[in-house]
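Box 3.1 A note on notation
Throughout this textbook, protein chains are presented in two layers. The first layer is the amino acid sequence; the second is a token string describing backbone geometry. Keep the layers aligned when reading.
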Amino acid sequence: MTAAAIPYTPPLKEIRFVLDHLAGMAEVAALPGFEDASPDMVDSILGEAAKIAENVLAPLNRIGDVQGAKLGADGVARTAEGWGTAWQALVEGGWNGLPFDPARGGMGLPNLLNTAVQEMWHSANMAFALCPMLTQGAVNAVQLYCSEALKDLYLPRMISGEWTGTMNITEPQAGSDLAATRSRAVPNGDHYLVTGQKIFITYGEHDLTENIVHLVLARLPDAPPGVKGISLFVVPKVLVNPDGSLGDRNQVKCVSLEHKLGIHGSPTAVLSFGDEGGATGFLVGEPNRGLEYMFAMMNHARLNVAMQGLSIAERAYQQALAYARERVQGKPLGWTEGQSKGIVNHPDVRRLLMGMKARIEAMRGILYTAAAAVDVAHHHADEATRGRAALLVDLLTPIAKGWCTETGQQLASDGVQVHGGMGFIEETGAAQHLRDARITTIYEGTTAIQANDLINRKLLRDGGATANGLLDEIAALAGELSGHTDEALRVTGAELVGAVHEARQAIAWVLAAAKQDPRLPAAASVTLLELMGVVAGGWQLARAGKVAAEKLAEGDADTAFLSAKPLTARFYATHVLPKAAALRATVVNGSASVMALSEEQLFGAV
């Protein structure tokens, strides 16, 4: 079975269930500013986005992987066959503007709905979908912090998708240490001359649009040292005239494209600015606040990269399940006449597939809940409600980015395992999902960076109040389900009660250890993040199981779909939630073993 033989089918029923019953689509649509988000409009958007994913983007996924992007002698990166046509389909449909202000050319629809659309597009073709994802992040930053003149000049075409956007952060010598940023910006009349080199710039050069709007971090001549001295600049590939027409080519040069493990169809550029004196750039907001402004893009990107973990796992699961149903190898244990002989009935293959299914549903619940909280934080009429939602987004962002990408990578690997030897062969397509997934735990901040953010900026900031508040909510649901008449939900509730207890213990230890030695919680941070992800995933599956049981009791006719929800929750509860105790033990007992010994004791003499 080849990659081309297994299509991607958008899981619309699953998406709609989570939108309606876990994320509260109706409540989000009722927020000020979302008057057009009627049920009919939501259905129409989901249906049309699914068609684009299935019929336009998914067929190009393998093509992009094989052909990749290539840098021409003229310095233009050529994307794979069919990608330009696919991009124009998005532009003509106005898809890039889905979550943006209609006054600027957007659709004015919720971020929650946009998240569902992005999930399908990244499942269909992650390398392609990176471009609209990053452009939307750039739009957010321009919209929030640029002058009205820059907004008027750039936003309409960025929102339409006629121009794309990037963020330029990383430099060869700096990596994640932004204090080491060396790019410079020197005042020159009404603009600045920007010089320096940036690496790992996704879609930093391509042939999909006439212009690319780069958001670039650089230092002013009198900037203070460290991250407090970084400013943000709009640096277009092609200069824009006052009437919005394109002028001369700016001094932005693509030096090379990276040769990567995965996402081959996405051009990852090394960009050089100002080789002949300085690239024309325009200051965003106030001087020396660039890192603060860039986080508008980074936080948007982190939740979207978390969603990539979900998306690639969904694609890998669909392919693994289809293969397991078709592939016959031996006779399954306990096989009876008339039963399928596919390896889907072998016990361990079934375990692998159920593990993929349960974790995918857990990730979708976490991500859509976070997306809904973003809408509430920006649009709810009540200030206190907005504040609570913002705190939930802050807490869930590192958990979602870290846990969903690590989980997505593991599930892509499990998809290869289901295929057996055929999974190691490129023609089946299973290996591409694993290669593509590998970057998600690295870009937009590695898992360790997310884990340190969780501890330093979230737990220590408020003494664990927000995290424990979320655990209170989860514990209330767990206690309720522990006495449920449905056995699967009783088991789920009981296991979730225990997992919440373990998370509380781990958080308490982190808060105490931080006062003794800041290295201790740092050494335990990734393990704590995994623990919080495991618990949050169990919370979402428990919620789904409870809703499904209630709908069945009301006589809902979709019994096959709904009956699976409590069973999936129980699988997660018995296969994943028991890991919480071991993770808590590692948090509490493992840090000292890492930090108490010297480098030589741990790794030998240099």
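The first strand starts at residue 70 and ends at 71. The longest helix spans residues 290-326.
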